[in-house]
Each structure stands twice: as C-alpha cells, then as structure tokens.
Amino acid sequence: MFSAPPSVMTSPKGNRAHKMKLPIFTQKGMLEVPSPTEKDWSKDDEDNCVFSDPEQEVDSLPQPYRMINKLVNFLFDRSWEIIEERDVLRTAELSRIQPTIYSPFIESTLNKMPNCMAVSQDYVFIGGTKGFSIYNLHNAKRIYVWEKLKVDVTSIWATDLGNEILIAPVDEMGIVRLFYFYKDSLFLIKAINEVDDTSKQTTCIKMEISEGGDFAAFLLQGAGDICLDVYKLPKESWLKEVEYPQLSANSKKKVRQLQMNTLDPVKTDSFEMDINICFRGDVKLSLPVHIMKIKPPKPVTGTTFKSPLEVFAKIEDCCGLGSGQNHFIKDSQWEQQVAIFNATYKKYLDGEWEEELLSMATFHFLLPSFIIAMPAEVKNPPGVACVLGVHWTGSHNFFLYSLNRTLKDKVDPESTWPCAAPITVSQLSCCCSYLVLACKDGVLTLWDLAQGFSLGVIALPERCLCQSIHFLKYFLVHKGQNMYPEGPVKSQMKCVVLGTDGSLYLVAASGTQRPTLSLLVERPVKHPEEAICAVAPVRALPGMVLIFSSNGSVHLMDVATSQIICAFAPPRSYHLAVPWKPVFVVSSHHPCFLLRGDHPDELGSASNAEDIPNSIFYFNFKACPLLENITRNCTIPQTDMLDNAAFPQVLPLEKRCENFFQKRNEVEWLRCSGLNSDSTTY
Predict the structure, then answer these.
(1) CA 379/CA 368 separation, integer angstroms
(2) Is 479 left (phi over 0), alpha (psi -120 to 50) or beta?
(3) Per-residue pLDDT reduced to its tens digit, 437-454
(4) Are 189 and 203 contacting, i.e. CB atoms less than 8 angstroms apart?
(5) Using only C-alpha atoms, what is the Rg of the chain?
(6) Which residues, including other chains, have CB under 8 Å from residue 420's CB and lie 6 or more apart?
(7) Maximum Cα interatomic distance, the chain, rounded to a whole number of Å
(8) Is the peptide bond before 234 cis (omega within 30 degrees of 0)?
(9) What is the C-alpha separation between 628 and 105, in angstroms, rounded?
(10) pTM of this prediction exceeds 0.90
C-alpha cells in the first residue's frame, strides 16, 4: 500500500479544507455597492454571475512554459482565423459569376521561345534567337526567317507605310536596325547606332516612329551620357528604289534566296497567302537623314545676365519661355536657398545618398494643329508630323521641337509647356489629335491638339498615381450597344488610366464640359493575385479593353458598364514569372490578338528545357459567340445620330444651334399657353 505524504497525514486542517471545497459564484466585471433599497436591486444578478468549480481551476504555469502556452494558443487561434478567411473567400469565389472562357483559335508552335511580337497589316513579326521571323496572321504559317545576328532580338516595331512596312528590331546589344518590307522582298536600310569602336557603342533604350513613317526618334545611352536622335525617313525614295532598282557593280550576281521554313499547315477557313519572300541584300536604299540631337535640359544654375533687360532680350519670339533657363537669380541666392533647405530638413537628409540615375525621355510626334505655332514660311503637308514633343524624367516641362530643321541648326525648343508638378506619364492618341499629361501629383491634363484648347484637368484619387494611359476610339452607347460614330467627331475623347495601386479608371472629356472620372476596377485588396499588370484597348470592339492580371487571367471588359464580357485562356496551365509581364500584341486592323505562352508547369526541369513547347496563341474575336454580333454591327449611321437627340455632342454646330432655339421656342410657347389658360380661368 502507498502511504500518504507526511504533510497531508499530519495536517488535519488541510483535509478539512480539501473536503470543504464547494462550487462558488464569481461575478463578472467590476463589483459595485448595492443600493440600500431592495426595489433598486438588479433582477439580472444571476446572469452576471458565472458558475466556477474550484476543482477545474488551473494553476499559473511557470516560465518559460507560460510563454510557450501563449504562443501555442496564439498559433491555434491564428490558424483558425486563416481557415475561416479562406472558407469565406472560397464561398465568395463560388458565388461569383464566372465569365465564359474561350480557347485560342490557332496555336502556333515555335522551336524557340519568342521574345517580342509586332503586327502590321496581315503579318506578324516575331523577334527571337539571332533575328526575327515573319508569319501570316491568318493561318499562322511562317513565310520568312532572318537570322544573321549573334545575339537575340529583344524588342521589335512594325509601322504601316501604306503598301509597305517598316520593321525596327532591337537586339540584346541595344543596336536597332531598319528593314523595309515591300511585297515579296525584304531590304536592310541601316543599323542606326552600330559602330566599329565598341567603346563608343550606344544602346537604344526607346524608339518612336511617326504616324505614316516620315520621322523616327531613338533614345540612345552610352558612356554615361544619353541623347535623343531624330531622323527623317525618305520613304518616297525607298519606294522608287525598290520598284526600279539601280544596277550596281554586283547586280549581276544572282539574288540569294533564303530557305523557307514553313510550319505544318493549319486548318482554317481564312484565306492563305502564298508568298515567296527573299532578302535583297544587293539593293542599297537611301539612308535616313539625321536632323536633330536633343540632350536633357541643363540644371538651373545662377544667372550670367547683368540686368533684367538682357534676360528678356535672350527670349526671342517667346522661344524657351517657361523652361526656367532664362532667369535673373544669382548663384548667391541659390546657395542661400540650399542652405535654408538643408538646415530645415537636416534630420531627413542624414544618411547616404543614392546615385542619381540618368534622365529618361518620353517623346511623341505631333501633327500640325491650332495649338502648335509654326512659322508662316513653313508649309507642312497634311498628315505629316511637324513637331516632336519631349519631356524628361523629373522635369515639369513639355518641350516642343520643330522637325523642319537640319543637323547644323541650333537645337532649341520652339515652345515649352510648364506643368505644376514633374511629368511622369504622357500618351498621344492614335489619331494624334489628343494628348494627356500625367504629373507626379496624380493630376491629368487633357489637350485637344486638333482644335487647339485644353479639355480640362482632372485628378486621380488620393495616393493613386498614373501608371499608364490607353486611348479608346470614341464610341457611343446606342440601344444598349457600344458603337462607333460613322462620321468624324471633334473634341470628344475617352481613355482608360491604370493606377499604380492596380485600380483602373475611365476618363471622358467632351468639349468645354468638365471631364469625368469613373472607377472601372477597384484596388485588389482581398485578391492581390488579381492585380492588373497590363491593359490593351481593342479597336475592333467599341469600348472594350483587354485586362491582363498577375495570376495569368485575361478578361475582356466593357468600359461603358464596367462588366467582364468574357475571358481568354490557353488550353493548358502555364508557369508564370513573378511579376508576370505578358508578351502580347493586339491587331489594329483585324479582330484578334496574340499571346505568348510561357513554360508549362509539368516541364519545369532544366534537363527538359529543349523539349518545352513554345507556343503563340491566336485568339479571334469573331470566333466567340458573345462577340460575333458586336464585330458585325459596330458603327452607327450618321443619319441615326442626327435624328437622335441623345447624341447632341456629335451633331454639327449649326444643327445644335437649331435644336437649341427650337427647344427654347417650345418652352416659351408652353409658358405663354399656361399664362393664357390661367387668366381665362380666373
């Protein structure tokens, strides 16, 4: 038999205490002194007391077990909260209406992973290993391949010149080359920035070709310097030289035709183009003419002028007005301001300064308009760019440079548009009639370049800055369907703005009316994987944009209703890079877009890298039943707009004045009729 401990056996008081443990009541909360009168006593005292069993009381654990116990309890509580949150999200996901998902119309399988794509007319230009390839847009057949480089092509542009196409691929070394594609021949024009001395080699960071292909600008960086080179393209001479090629010394040599690499035929209802393209290396085309080299604006320093009259004399014909370069502030005043600033914000300035990056430029070719003043002696053909608009990183100014100059002329801006804050993003519409400048403070300035006035200023919500701007071709909602007006529309613009927080907005401006801002997609707080990473307008579908999300989903949205119409997805799941930068291109002339597929999930090992299928998916909007009616009927006749009072903004000025006076006469007639009836009754 076991004997009890001596302390228990010799302590009868402890035995009595153990036997006398009875259930007790403990009151919740703070104890209060009861009222002297019984009628004021609370009748809910029993509810305020909790039954406590002394046998169930838990003694306080010593350290470190008490801390471990708290951590374990916290872990279980937090796990349960996560389980509940996921359950709520799963329930909400199941309750959400899933859009119709369409598969690609054609899948084009490539030997190697493509790096970039461009579409022009009926052709697709794909940049990849050691060159680029040309594909038929309608049947995905490869009709030509140019692979003469030692490095890969990282980006490519294709500009429609009418019956010809100007191609500009950029390789990994940053060298940009111009190609001329005419009928069944491909011509190399020039490597813009290729030099023999590698120490002087520059890298092409950004490029832009004017509408119609009359001018081209290249932002080049090298040796710690950066500049913007502008060229005039002799496209009329190119057309004559390819139609009537001049015989050269080696013209008797047989033109070498590169071997055609054709893919397996694809069954489709679209027509097939049997084109035999050859590279014409024997024909030398006219070289682009270098007309201007623009460098970043110099930092504002102390003045060298001795009087204010010299400052005004420096400004000739208002050129440079607003740039801040011509002023009467001395070096001592600048030094004093810097000293005051450093003394005021000394605690914020302590620490290491990051190295200042080179200033980057954003530039656009602008057409002649009322807002751009040109000399009277300069006669610019209609539809040909005449001015280059440029703004640099961290600059408040938007500079305008005339393109009617030579390389010997002094490079000074003809005019300057100063803004209240540094310009971060700018975008020019496809028709070159509208321009939007987004500043660092989230304010957007809308310009109607064709008519020569500002459409207004509008600000994004607080803490939301502009990431990108995408113009939409102006559309109207007619009988519940988005439709394009048949005739030209003046001073009417719509664009979508992607915010830095992942939100999406629709900005609309109409004449002198105040511009409006509508929220299309909220900031993804609960679903960060659905954050928008790219947006692309679809010109074949009025008021529609493609939205690419970080989770790999692609949706088509109607901006008029903020509703998702449908979704597009490849036939199998793909492994996406983080962050995902989709490689896609949307055709401006055909109702389709192309999307590159990344590596599949099941083939992620490096040993099977060569066996990974590299595909480009072709999505046709006409093959989607939900969009078939929209692609057929997307234009509203001019007669319907003139007869419909719901579209006063598209009516001519004479018609709007006539409707205004007619409505006013009707109101006056009704008012007079009401007065006469009242007097008769009286």
Answers:
(1) 10
(2) left
(3) 999 999 999 999 988 889
(4) no
(5) 36
(6) 396, 439, 441, 443
(7) 128
(8) no
(9) 14
(10) no
